[in-house]
Design brief:
single chain, two-stranded parallel sheet, mainly beta, binds zinc ion
Length: about 80
Amino acid sequence: MNGYPQSNDYLPGTWKGLKLQGGQRSATVTCPVCGQTCTLIDHQIDPDGTVSPSLVCPYDCGFHEFIKLEGWADVPEKG
Ligand SMILES: [Zn+2]
């Protein structure tokens, strides 16, 4: 399990918050291998930031990891 820090700049190996219709929170993750950004809309993000199931890069670069979004619990819900 690897912790990923939050960043607003889509740096490889970071996540960025994403607001869904209906107010749900999700996130995008920028792949540390190929640098492409993918969403976690199809994943569950636990309150502590643990993502399940494991993340497989949709761009076929071979990245496959269990990840945790560092600081996920610290980002306030915004109405
Ligand atoms: Zn990738």
